[in-house]
Design brief:
single chain, 751 residues, alpha/beta, eight-stranded mixed sheet, six-stranded mixed sheet, 23 helices
Length: 751
């Protein structure tokens, strides 16, 4: 019973509120004022904006004494129509303000023909293309409420940087807004450079309204792109209608498939809720970004209900329509203008507009956060959020946590992207082009050390095979590139310096092999990071350090040892002399040796030593001399006589120069120049040896007394001929290492 009473009370309150509102509307004087709108009604965005403005004024008129009328002019996406529309609204329609997609240059041109436009507030819903437009003295009432295009360029660059694509192709539509500012592409190029990328190609498509045959025009441009290698396509700016045709033709030409990447901007991604199923199927695997706003709030749900109902009534041919950010932006801007108009009494001022929550430079409406989306199936899924301050985050909660801990990394946030063609790994965005030739990469065909580069020719198969450690390193580096590299090895029969000059002259695009990084070569070419440390080593033959002199046995002990043994013998003789004085007369004639023999024989027969304390003093050190010293002497002398003591036959380069000795080195290497110009060897004393197998015979035939190698070659030589009597000598002259050769204008090894 209480519930029924409460229900009737609520009904009475509702009816009374409605009656009071109706009575207040009847009692107030309803003045009629007009607001103008310049929209491109041929576009999906323009339709969204129109419906949103109508809803805003309908709500305002229902609750306000003042009545606002919306005067809409269709610009058809054309600047001339936009200028004419603005003039018509101010002259014949006498509107209080103009809202819509009108640029600063269009408004400025209209003011040249009609001075009244300068005193009418114009709310532009598109991004300012020039920073000076934000506060222009020529149009003091021109207010930019559009998004910041620089943020969009930063978001595109952040996506590119996240996946480490080094080159991209930029596509954009030259409409009445985008074509007026070349600085937008400069901002994109700058943002891309910050993430290690650059623009490889760019395609400027005319606006859709200016094309008589849009499909053939777009197809011709895509054919040009198909002949290029790059497959990372960034749509910097486009209407949804042009993007639909673009993806339709790209899908037919297999440009939306495995290995390709497509990134769409807010102007396309933000309207995907209004795209039909056939267009969505052409965009499978595409990633993009859209302005983030709260779609779960009660206010937005009410707005969404009204929007869908009104949109279907006015555009019944459309399907799956949901309000976009652009609709919400137009709705709020119209409500703000209507609120200011109610208080203006016939003339709007900037102060009144600012009081109604409209602010300059788009700071009120512009969101700093974007949803990163991925088209899949019949719709799309949201992958992450991005903001310029915090980068990528999974959702608002993690974004807030990231804000509290700015050191959090965003890597891996976009790891679950569904790519074109259904692949699960990140595409390289690069393919072999029919237009672009293969890179010609030279390799030394006459290298002395085939372990690094080995060029062989198979007559039976008529095929050249190129292998070796340097080749394996290069192939592994190419495999790790973020794109496919189409190249061909070209055997080069000249010297290493001549091969470097061929790269400088652009006869070769690059050079791969055991090429040393030298300062004088840097004047011509660039080098990769060294993949092997290097230097110059001198290798000579071994010689024995064992002396053949008669007194070699004296070297078994050191001088200190011989002095100790002599002192010990003197001590033993002195003790025996003392003993001889104490024994009986029968033993005196025998001498010390006889006494010693008697002592030993006595010990052997009885097992007991002579009980004389002095005898014990003699026997203890004597046993040490006989047992320890003799064993040590024998072992040391045996080692000296049997084991060879080895040392270099030549100690250093100075010895070679002093003796005017011949030396050998790789004839194609820079070492020839090093020996003649740095070490001052005579050219006639340098033997050019072009094979590792020729060095042992050159040493054996006394053709050379030393050989010079770079350190990696020396290690290979010593490992191969370790039992042939060779040894390193002298100091190692340090170098920059072994690297690959390229030029900065052409082939880069930094990728």
């Amino acid at each position: 019973m209480s519930l029924i009473i409460c229900f009737f009370v609520l009904q009475l309150l509702t009816w009374s509120r409605v009656l009071l509102a109706h009575e207040s509307r009847n009692n107030c004087s309803r003045s009629i004022m007009s607001i103008g709108a310049v929209l491109d009604l041929s576009s999906q965005m323009g339709k969204h904006q129109k419906i949103a403005m109508q809803i805003a004024l309908q709500e305002f008129n229902r609750l306000s004494c003042s009545k606002l009328d919306l005067k809409i002019e269709n610009s058809h996406g054309n600047s001339a129509h936009a200028v004419a529309s603005a003039m018509d609204l101010t002259q014949s329609k006498q509107v209080l303000a103009i809202i819509g997609t009108i640029t600063h240059s269009e408004a400025n041109l209209a003011s040249e023909f009609d001075d009244t436009i300068k005193n009418i507030p114009i709310l532009s819903l598109i991004s300012p293309v020039a920073r000076s437009e934000k506060s222009s003295p020529l149009l003091p009432y021109f207010i930019q409420e559009g998004y910041d295009i620089n943020l969009h360029m930063q978001c595109i660059a952040a996506i590119v940087g996240e996946f480490r694509w080094r080159k991209v192709t930029v596509i954009y539509e030259l409409d009445n807004w985008f074509s007026s500012d070349p600085g937008i592409l400069l901002d994109l190029s700058y943002s891309l450079r910050l993430v290690g990328s650059e623009i490889d190609n760019h395609v400027a498509l005319p606006s859709l309204s200016s094309l008589l045959d849009p499909k053939s025009t777009i197809e011709n441009e895509l054919n040009r792109l198909k002949n290029k290698s790059n497959r990372v396509f960034l749509i910097a700016h486009s209407s949804l209608e042009l993007a639909n045709i673009l993806f339709e033709k790209a899908k037919q030409m297999s440009l939306v498939g495995k290995g390709s990447v497509w990134v769409i901007p807010d102007g396309v991604a933000g309207l995907l809720d209004s795209v039909n199923s056939s267009s969505i199927l052409n965009m499978q695997g595409v990633i993009g970004f859209k302005t983030h706003f709260m779609e779960t709030s009660k206010a937005f749900r009410r707005f969404k209900f009204k929007f869908r109902r009104r949109f279907v009534l006015e555009f019944p041919e459309e399907e799956n329509i949901n309000p976009s950010f652009f609709a919400l932006q137009s709705y709020k801007a119209t409500r703000a203008v209507a609120q200011a108009a109610r208080e203006s009494q016939g003339k709007l001022t900037l102060e009144q507009l600012f009081k109604s929550n409209i602010s300059r430079n788009g700071k009120f409406w512009q969101s700093q956060t974007f949803n990163i989306i991925n088209v899949i199936g019949k719709s799309y899924r949201e992958l992450a959020l991005w903001s310029p301050e915090l980068g990528f985050s999974k959702n608002l909660i993690t974004q807030q946590l990231t804000e509290m801990n700015t050191n959090s990394a965003s890597s891996g946030i976009l790891s679950t992207v569904y790519w074109p063609g259904g692949i699960q790994f990140v595409p390289k965005g690069w393919t072999h082009s029919t237009e672009q030739r293969k890179l010609q990469i030279g390799v030394p065909a006459k290298g002395a050390f085939t372990e690094f580069v080995n060029v062989t020719y198979d007559k039976n198969r008529n095929k050249t095979s190129i292998t070796g450690f340097s080749i394996d390193v290069f192939k592994e580096a190419v495999h790790n590139l973020s794109y496919d590299l189409d190249f061909a090895f070209v055997p080069f029969n000249g010297s290493y310096d001549e091969m470097v000059e061929q790269v400088y002259n652009k006869t070769l695009d690059a050079a791969v092999g055991d090429t040393s990084i030298m300062a004088y070569r840097y004047h011509l070419v660039d080098f990769s990071q060294p993949y092997v440390d290097s230097g110059i080593d001198m290798v000579v033959t071994e010689q024995s350090a064992k002396s053949k002199e008669t007194w070699i046995f004296l070297k078994a002990f050191t001088k200190g040892m011989w002095l100790m043994m002599a002192a010990l013998h003197i001590f033993v003789g002195f003790v025996i002399w003392l003993i001889e004085r104490q024994v009986n007369e029968e033993l005196k004639g025998f001498g010390s040796m006889l006494w010693f023999l008697v002592t030993v024989i006595f010990y052997a027969h009885t097992g007991e030593p002579i009980r004389s304390p002095l005898a014990r003093t003699v026997l203890a050190p004597w046993l040490f001399v006989i047992l320890i010293a003799t064993s040590t002497f024998t072992a040391s002398l045996t080692s000296m006589m049997t084991v060879s003591q080895l040392e270099p036959s030549v100690l250093d380069i100075k010895s070679l120069l002093k003796r005017n000795s011949p030396v050998g080195c790789n004839g194609n290497s820079f070492i020839v120049k090093y020996l003649t110009e740095v070490q001052k060897f005579k050219p006639e004393n340098i033997r050019r040896i072009n094979s590792i197998n020729d060095y042992p015979s050159a040493f054996q035939n006394k053709d050379i007394e030393a050989a010079f190698f770079i350190a990696p070659h020396a290690k290979v030589f010593m490992a191969k001929y370790s039992c042939r009597g060779f040894i390193k000598a002298g100091n190692t002259f340090r170098l920059g290492g072994l690297g690959f050769v390229g030029i900065s204008q052409g082939f880069h090894f930094g990728y």
